[in-house]
Write a structure and sequence with these properties.
Helix content: 40-55%
Distance between the termini: 44 Å
Strand content: 15-25%
Largest sheet: 6 strands, mixed
Number of strands: 12
Radius of gyration: 30 Å
Number of helices: 10
Length: 278
Amino acid sequence: MVTSGSFSRAAELLHMAQPPVSIAVKKLEQELGATLLLRSNKSLDMTAEGREVFEQAQKIIAQMDELRYSVGEYKQLLRGEISVACPSMVGTYYLPQLLGEFLDLHPGLKASVTQAGTERIQQLLLSGEVDVGVVTLKQVDSALQVIPLLTEPMVVCVDAGHPLRKQSSVHISDLHRLPMVLYEADYYIRRRLDDLCAAADVSPDIRLQTNYLPLMTKMVKQNHGATVALGMMADQEPGLFSLPLIPQQMVEMGIAYRRDGQLGRANRRFIEWLEQRE
């Protein structure tokens, strides 16, 4: 009635006879205990109470529209798949819980995880080969939008029988000529370590270089060398012990996607969920 200006016009728009419309308004006024419309021969005017009810009704209609959209999106997501490119260490020790929480909310969804270093992931994102990926927050390309995900210290990991196990921390100078098992040079953690060593004129004895995480952890547990990793690895890997690296090095990482990219429904919902968790 408010938008149409009369009971008769409202009835036409609703494809109803006029009397039921008038009765419905009268019942609403009785339930609320207030007059909502001032009736005259020429027009319908809202009372103050009527204006308040109208504004609240508009909000409720908007909320219902949003709810219908959300439910519709949810149903479509049941047939979707999220795909994430991720470094092996984060993929092994952090991503399972994160993805698990999201997939529990959307039981029909599938997930695909591709392993790569953060620098390579950034290249894949920029080229459009992947839509969503984990990157370090240092030197992120301006074409990417990033949601902060985690901050972890770089630590030295050793076996229980390693000589460094007796120390409370490890200075970068302690790594000089120390047998080590490390990531290959194209990995971010390895580059950070190489920069620290170069600045301190330190040369570790690199016994093994690999991007295969299970091989690295196995070699450390067998006391073939120490490694440098994120703190989460030692926290979750039985038989490994972590020692703070001096000077302290923190690694900040986040989920990135192209600002101008068109995300699929599943990936878009994953991004929205991450933003809500912040």
